[in-house]
Amino acid sequence: MATTEALAQFDIPAHVPPELVHPLGITESAEFLAAPHAFMAGLHGKYPPIVYSPSAQTGSAWQLTRYEDAYFVLRHPEIFTTAGATPFPRDPNNYFYFIPLEIDPPDHRKYRAILEPTFSPKGIARLDESIRRLANDLIDQFIAKGSCEFTRDFGRPLPVSVFLDLMGLPQDMLDTFVGWAIGLLHSQDRETAGRCMKEAVAYMQTVIAEKAQHPDDGVISTIVHSTPGGEPMTGQEIFGFVFFLFIAGLDTVFATLNNIFLWLAENPDRRQEIIDNPDNIDAIAEELLRVFSVTFSGRTLTQDYELRGVKMKKGDKVTSILPACNYDPSVFENPQEVNFHRPRKPNLAFAGGVHSCMGAHLARLEVKISITEFLKRLPDFHVSEDAAIEYWPGGVVGPKALPLSW
């Protein structure tokens, strides 16, 4: 149990048993930031499967680390709602929901259907050639230098450039967009987050108005001109849909690639295993996505509910620590081992249930192409000498920079 002094600043609800109160420091503590995935893997041996973690930074919530529990929560929106699940600052006098994430069934379906042709396996497969071309164009820019800063030179521009083209947004604003995303997802300062939110909102309002007048084949235009259920969406619905996709598409694959390539740089024998087994790339990518998943999934209880003997109350916040769930030893044998021949079991890198990530097929393709094309051109690389790997705080887990040399 946490010390009385450590908990004095928090108002712990009366129904929370004292023995289940543990300030985990997920996303922000020095211990977490030193080695986030090792930290989350270690939660299984150190804490009960469900704990209540008070936090001034992220808000107090029940924290789930078991695969089975997260799997249940993700698939029962009637008990665990996503309404208000995202912590981004919004004007209470002009409140909008992040669509479709914060919309539960049955309305969720009509919004998600708008973009299914774009993000379906068939729709994403059409991007294969252009993504491979982009990967090699990026490598061309640094291969002769003998080094690169991976996050800046490859990890960020590849998925973000693909995303901007899909959305119908200008490539020359990539750095501005990423800056807003970093401010919203990783800033520990409310003033910075608020400023980034204000600037991003103003920009996206302008873009939406422009797409309304001048349609194109991008995702934003598709949303603006869609009529789910035969009716046009309201301005707030359109904005909430567009803004959610804008934020969601800027950081997650970027962080995932950074984590994967740090591991690749530190494990030359495993790089060679990938090179020697190109036909196994699907299983390779899936295992790396399991081991280096980067996000968390927040919910709010719509009713009193008991899970694994823990009594939760209506209105309580619940967070599934998805990376920890993907290290659940009761589901994945030797969970911290990267095993490219592991028996297939759905992992929770893209959450699950009706709110599973719409961009999962695109993310998988980008990961597979990045690994394959990079190792074709640069089979031997390592983390640059004297490089200190530091991780971003916040809700998407990944290193700030990754200097590589060869």
TrEMBL record:
Keyword Lyase listed: no
Keywords per UniProt: Membrane, Transmembrane, Transmembrane helix
Signal peptide per UniProt: none
Residues passing through the membrane, by range: 238-264
Annotated Gene3D superfamilies: Cytochrome P450 (1.10.630.10)
Keyword Membrane: yes
Family: Belongs to the cytochrome P450 family.
Record protein name field: Cytochrome P450
Taxonomic source organism: Sphingomonas oligophenolica
Upper taxonomic lineage: Bacteria, Pseudomonadati, Pseudomonadota, Alphaproteobacteria, Sphingomonadales
